[in-house]
Design brief:
Blueprint: E1 9-11, H1 14-37, H2 40-45, H3 48-69, E2 72-76, E3 79-84, E4 87-92, E5 96-100, E6 109-112, E7 117-119, H4 129-142
Antiparallel strand pairs: 1-2, 2-3, 3-4, 5-6, 6-7
Helix pairs in contact: 1-3
């Protein structure tokens, strides 16, 4: 079990969080602007079901972007907590064999003791050096010696 210095350590992807915020604002703003730019006759031709459909589609888009933005990795004394989208998983240190992030990979993967792998969306390859440093820190926690 790795010894953490003071507090739990959290990693979050910077680029995807910025992109999610910008694209959410653009998505909502574009549809609001489009609706406001319609003349009254066009607005009256759009029925309730069509309006609800558009609102639901925009809501789903914002929810998907939010899922990407909320991804994170938290290292604690007891193990790792992964939040990938809306799914939260906890792993004890003994369950994690290695973390890998080959060049060009969108995010790292954890190799687990049961032979499976899991993606780590809280560290995103598009963050460049930040991602490389996060993987290095996690490798150090996995093999402190």
């Amino acid at each position: 079990m790795p010894a953490l210095s003071v507090q739990p350590r959290t990693w979050r992807p910077l680029g995807p969080r910025i992109a999610a915020a910008v694209f959410s604002a653009v998505l909502v703003g574009a549809f609001a602007y489009l609706w406001l730019s319609f003349d009254q006759e066009t607005k009256e031709e759009v029925n309730l079901v069509q309006r609800i459909t558009v609102v639901v589609m925009v809501g789903v888009g914002v929810a998907l972007l939010h899922a990407l933005a909320r991804s994170k990795v938290v290292a604690r004394d007891s193990g790792l907590v992964l939040v990938n989208g809306y799914r939260r998983r906890e792993y004890e240190w003994a369950e994690i064999i290695a973390i890998r992030m080959p060049p060009g990979a969108p995010w790292p993967t954890l190799d687990l003791a049961d032979g499976t792998t899991v993606s780590v969306l809280g560290i995103h390859g598009s963050d460049g050096r930040r991602a490389t440093e996060a993987v290095r820190e996690l490798k150090g926690l996995l093999d402190p010696g």
